[in-house]
Design a protein that fits this description.
CATH superfamily of the largest domain: Pyruvate-ferredoxin oxidoreductase, PFOR, domain III
Largest sheet: 6 strands, mixed
Structural class: alpha/beta
Number of strands: 17
Number of domains: 4
Helix content: 40-55%
Strand content: 5-15%
Distance between the termini: 58 Å
Radius of gyration: 29 Å
């Protein structure tokens, strides 16, 4: 898997070996290379299986290598099993020092855990924030060294918390989406799939999926000021879950159980696919049926695909647990991307299979870290499934579960309820509900999800009534100030058009950002582009809409004043209250450039007491860009101001060359500021990419115009 990862995450991968041979390639390579050191990753499952032999071989060969041993008590590669014969960290350190390892450093998220541990002399314990430093120190030590990173597998820890086996942390991490730049840095810092991209009015942002969050707070690292930590209140939240539907009022589908029924469930690791398979297998056993099942977990711990097959028969039958080609009766797709995978669809048959699939867009690992990676169009994926099934049902189970129950972790059982009510799951409803109860985790809420799924099919009108009022209505332009209305009139956008909607949001925002004059500058430029587009490409407003979006993005750059203003956004406090209860305590996680310049390399936590400072900073925004601006001379701030001028000049040049043929390229150029994301050095790197790409596309536009002129002259 490492060979498929980006080198910026995995480093330069040198060779591959068998399990237990980690680092063996380095023994043969080192004498012939100028480089004299290698870092070799090693899991604790592999170490206890045979990896310790590789360390002994490296010691015997006298090479310079650091083994980085991940001690997380789970074999992630095959679904999270406990390693066999696992040794505690002190025993591992003692044994390897005796074998000849020169130096050992232990890194952990909880240094206090080692206060009473009996470690061998010379073994240091550092916080995980010093992981990179530990690697550098060990790399300078001749011989074989060992870095033991002791941190329980986050996915396994989350599962224990859900079952009440370990206490929940008191804090939650939250993102202020207005401050978020959607740069993907938090995904790179944490490598966590709970840090998910989301499309908003102001472009792509990032949101933390609270139901799947591992609560290890790795995403808080970096320079982004959008992160908050919240200590939930003990009181009631504003969210009211949907009422429990009356199961007796829901009609049962055809109760006929075939002699054999095969189910394939597809999804991603950590979303409850294996648990759902266990519930359905238990339900079949409770109903007096025979079950064969196979879970194909693979990279489940890392958010990879999970496939669970269940074969239900009336009579005991000797057969394989895996669904064969064309053998699937119910294809339950908990994730659209995984469900549409051709290899998984081989079990489906157009004359036999009923497919019930969630259309929720669950981001992949690449989408989490790369802001330019997006979810593929859903319709081709759905068509691929339709082609392999007799009947299909598509619904956004995650959104429905979140709207009705407050957590998308109930989506799989809601989807199961839909499958049951359509007749695709020939098991008694009471057996499924009993199996849910026996599972022992949030039984009542999971039964409710199952019944709500049934209700969506059996009583769609009543189900629609449940959803009524739970969707937040879009904000309209009503309530605009007089100066905002006057500024909007400068553009003359058609009332009710998309352009008018964009401006009704962005003009008031720029007035609040700076003042009416600043918003007027924006509106006049957009009006200029609109007039040109109307003349050159009649009937289209695509270029004007792109300029309206991205000129606003560049003009509303997030300096210290804007961070202060948006940190005080009432919407943030309303969200915290609704999600975590009235009285929840909110703290800001900031890494101010001033403190960074003084050498502070980590964020500081500022509580509610800091709000007066934010108010004072926000009130000082009139100083922005003037000689009195205390922050304006910084390199990033100078660049942000220059980008606005550059963009206006670029669009002016684009408008000079605009015609029907060049229109598509012009819209692409106008949309390029979407590349500009992040804070500090991350933003500066994105600006370099933006300028390079802009120069390239403007050059293409000018060259195309010159060729068109030459062709006209020749004719």
């Amino acid at each position: 898997m490492v060979t498929l990862m980006d080198p910026s995450q995995a480093g330069d991968v040198i060779g591959m070996t068998q399990m237990g041979g980690e680092g063996a390639q380095w023994i043969g390579m080192q004498p012939f290379l100028e480089r004299d050191h290698l870092i070799q990753n090693l899991g604790d499952g592999t170490f206890h299986h045979s990896g310790s032999l590789a360390i002994r071989a490296a010691v015997s060969a006298g090479v310079n290598v650091t083994y980085k041993l991940l001690h997380n008590s789970a074999v992630a590669m095959t679904g999270g099993q406990q390693p066999v014969g696992v040794m505690p960290v002190p025993a591992i350190a003692q044994g390897l020092l005796a074998e000849g390892v020169e130096r050992i450093i232990v890194t952990t998220e909880d240094v206090k855990r080692y206060r009473k541990a009996t470690l061998p002399k010379g073994v240091a314990v550092w916080h995980r924030d010093r992981l990179a430093e530990a690697q550098e120190v060990l790399a300078r030590t001749p011989g074989v060294t060992l870095l033991i990173h002791d941190q329980e597998c986050a996915t396994e820890l989350r599962r224990k918390r859900k079952r009440g086996l370990v206490p929940e942390p008191t804090e939650r991490a939250l993102i202020n989406e207005r401050l978020c730049e959607g740069c993907g840095d938090c995904g790179q810092q944490s490598n966590c799939l709970s840090v998910q991209p989301v499309d908003t009015e102001y472009g792509r942002k990032t949101r933390i999926d609270q139901s799947s969050c591992n609560k290890d707070y790795a995403c808080l690292a970096g320079d982004c000021p959008s992160f908050l930590t919240v200590v939930p209140a003990g009181g009631k939240t504003d969210f009211t879950p949907a009422a429990m539907p009356d199961g007796t009022a829901l009609p049962d589908p055809d109760p006929v159980v075939p002699a054999s029924h095969t189910i394939r469930i597809t999804g991603v690791g950590g979303s409850g696919v294996v648990t759902l398979a266990q519930i359905l297998s238990t339900a079949a056993s409770l109903a007096g049926l025979h079950v064969r099942a196979l879970d194909q977990t693979g990279m489940a711990q890392k958010g990879g695909a999970v496939v669970s097959d269940i074969k239900i028969t009336k009579e005991a039958t000797e057969q394989a647990g895996k669904a064969a080609r064309d053998e699937c009766d119910l294809y339950l797709g908990c994730d659209l991307l995984v469900a549409a995978e051709p290899g998984h669809l081989t079990a489906a048959a157009p004359a036999r299979t009923v497919a019930v699939v969630s259309t929720a867009e669950v981001p992949t690992g690449q989408m989490v870290i790369d802001p330019e990676a997006s979810f593929p169009p859903a319709e081709p994926l759905k068509e691929r499934i339709r082609a392999e099934a007799k009947d299909t049902v598509f619904l956004d189970a995650r959104r429905l579960a979140n709207d009705l129950l407050g957590e998308d972790q109930f989506a799989n059982l809601l989807l199961t309820g839909v499958a049951y009510q359509t007749g695709g799951l020939p098991l008694p409803a009471h057996a499924i509900e009993e199996a849910i109860t026996l599972n022992g985790v949030k039984a009542e809420a999971n039964i409710k999800a199952f019944r709500l799924g049934r209700q969506a099919v059996a009583a769609p009108g009543a189900f629609a009534d449940l959803l009524e009022g739970r969707v937040t209505p879009a904000k309209s332009g009503r309530g605009l100030s007089a100066e905002a209305r006057h500024t909007l009139e400068l553009v003359g956008a058609t009332p009710g058009s998309e352009l008018a909607r964009l401006l009704e949001v962005r003009v008031p925002d720029l007035i609040a950002y700076q003042n009416a004059a600043y918003a007027t500058r924006y509106a006049r430029f957009v009006a200029q582009v609109r007039r040109t587009e109307c003349e050159r490409v009649p009937g289209s407003t695509a270029l004007t809409e792109a300029v309206a979006r991205y000129l606003h993005k560049l003009m509303a750059y997030k300096d210290e004043y804007e961070v202060a203003r948006l940190s005080l956004d009432p919407e943030v406090e309303r969200e915290v209250k609704a999600r975590f209860g009235d009285g929840a305590r909110m703290s800001y996680r900031l890494h101010p450039p001033v403190l960074r310049a003084l050498g502070m390399n980590r964020k500081i936590e500022l509580g509610p007491w800091f709000k007066p400072v934010f108010r004072a900073l926000a009130a000082m925004r009139r100083l922005r860009g003037t000689r009195l601006d205390p922050f304006g001379a910084a390199r990033v701030r100078r660049t942000e101001r220059a980008l606005v001028v550059e963009y206006e000049a670029t669009i002016t040049e684009v408008c000079r060359n605009l015609d029907t043929d060049a229109h598509g390229l012009a819209v692409e150029i106008a949309s390029l500021p979407d590349i500009v994301r992040g804070y500090e050095e991350i933003k500066m790197a994105s600006v370099t990419r933006y300028r390079t790409r802009s120069a390239e596309l403007v050059g293409r536009l000018s060259a195309g115009r010159e060729r068109a002129g030459a062709d006209t002259a020749a004719s």
